[in-house]
Amino acid sequence: MIKVTLKDGSINEYKKGITIKEVAESISAGLARVALAGEVDGVVRDLGYKLENDCKLNLLTFDDEGGREAFRHTSSHIMAQAVKRLYPEAKLAIGPAIDTGFYYDFDVEKPFSPEDLEKIENEMNKIIKENYAIERFVLPRDEAIKFMEEKGETYKVELIKELPEDEEISFYRQGEFVDLCAGPHLSSTGKVKAFKLLSVAGAYWRGSEKNKMLQRIYGTSFPKKSQLDEYLARLEEAKKRDHRKLGRELDLFDIFEEGPGFPFFLPKGMVLRNILIDYWRQEHKKRGYQEISTPIILNEDLWHRSGHWDHYKENMYFTTIDDANYAIKPMNCPGGMLVYKRKLHSYRELPQRIAELGLVHRHELSGVLHGLMRVRCFTQDDAHIFMTTDQIKDEIKGVIELIDDFYKIFGFKYHVELSTRPENSMGTDEQWEVATNALREAMESMGMKYKINEGDGAFYGPKIDFHLEDSIGRTWQCGTIQLDFQMPERFDLTYIGPDGERHRPVMIHRVVFGSIERFIAILTEHYAGAFPVWLSPVQVKVLPILDKHHEYAKRVEQKLIENGLRVETDYRNEKIGYKIREAQLQKVPYMLVIGDKETENGTVAVRSRKDGDIGSMLLDDFVNKIVEEDRQKK
RNA sequence: GCUGGUGUGGCUCAGGGGCAGAGCAGCGCACUCGUAAUGCGCAGGUCGUGGGUUCGAUUCCCACCACCAGCUCCA
Questions:
Q1: Which nt is closest to the CA of A201, judged by C1'?
Q2: Positions of chain A with pLDDT lower than 50, given as ranges
């Protein structure tokens, strides 16, 4: 007999060799029905896995990551089986579960078309209906290679050959289909109740553009049809929130063919942009930052000195002026260096926090451009902090607090990643270690959770990245804090210490919004275009019912303007329902309907974007209410 | 940059080798109206750009450009 400890801490005894599935059945039929896999002493296993020793067992359902993964992974195998039936010459690459579903990469002569997807879906339904048992088996390395070679699965052969020596090489069989796979999987194909294939895309073998491009099919799957429908509805909702669509509809910004990746901001978008910038300036002033502005074009020589020429040239634009070579800045730091170097600095002046809203240009590949999220020119809300070594930790903490304060205002969730030394970088290992540890210590002293992002630092130093979560659950890097020992060295920055000697300052590069453009895109999707009062380009729309109400409407408008509110009045000769509809579609937070009653009583009939008609109130009361909402950043 | 798809009035989209269509928006006129679309009329397009095939191309072919979905890369 063996002792099995369950999640709730209870210990049951079973005979040796009992399967996970049988344990689930012994607990309840309901649990056995929803169990998809089991976690045995921390390792996720198939339901058919035999328990041979005392262990901790955690039964996994679709609500657990491990359960979901098994479910989606099996879904991808079903898809691969269907593809092999329809296109026997297709070679299998890899087919993992991902957060939102699964994909499988195939090497095929002809790319899949949307009609092909339909055929594949139909075949998958057959496979699910046929309800094959899924069996695991293990082969020794040489047999495994031979097995896959015979099938002509060259990618699988390559994968097996690269597996570590001691790795068990497992396969899963369902009907006529066998795939190399670590598992775990569901016990049969019939368990996948609801799935949909979503898209086809090219994807490089092993993610390297040097390799052949394969055809990837994305799909998603759920135990219940209702869950699938819910997911698809969420995708639709995400489409509605797309900032590119909303940006045009709400006249915030636009991008033209004449300037791919170079966005134009329209009057309403500028209102939003300027509010963000005003707030940014105010908060930075409070925290001891000074602001500068450096040129967009600077002599190429500067970029040789900064290391950008060696490490960032591919992303830069160049130009010539009077036969001399110049570069368009992709970053603000070198300009900041020149400003620091103008004068000798005393240790008493440090830390120096120098901010710059700098417009940078970067040559991004045409295929990655995406509305305001990925552009070729954007405004970084940059700052460079020059400091002594013992000021590092406090300065980093200060920036972390600043970023947290900003994101909280907008109600964003975010997570933090620490990026370490990349391959093509400057400096010594020791410098990198000191810098990386400084960032780590600052975060740990604040009790922050973070993920390590190996090899993803800037070429001049490690960084802390802040990733905001948008409406679709995509994450976008916004804020970043980068610690840099290289630029001060390269530009021979110094300060005079208490000892009268020259010392080398350390530098932080940091942004809060990251890029104003991207931040506006994220805000737009986050609020689905319905910006809170303090950010709305138009806060109040005055809607007179008839032309005889225009005079009072004008007075209302004037009063709101006097109180610093952003207001528009619809004087057109249209029915009130029409005016409301339009204001509502423009997502104006408050509409004021002005008719006989209001004109007589000095009131306004308030309609909120969110709650509809909320009744009449005195004009003064309304003004106070909105001014207060604006002030509180609601 | 790579793979696939798309490109027709400001927007959303239909059409298709032989005079280019609709709805919304715009403009004009009428209606004076209380919480998401009043009615009638008018105007608006070299069918992304450049080549080619053809008696004739917006339609078929080629190249380029832009956009979309991914890949790779990133604020």
A1: B70
A2: none
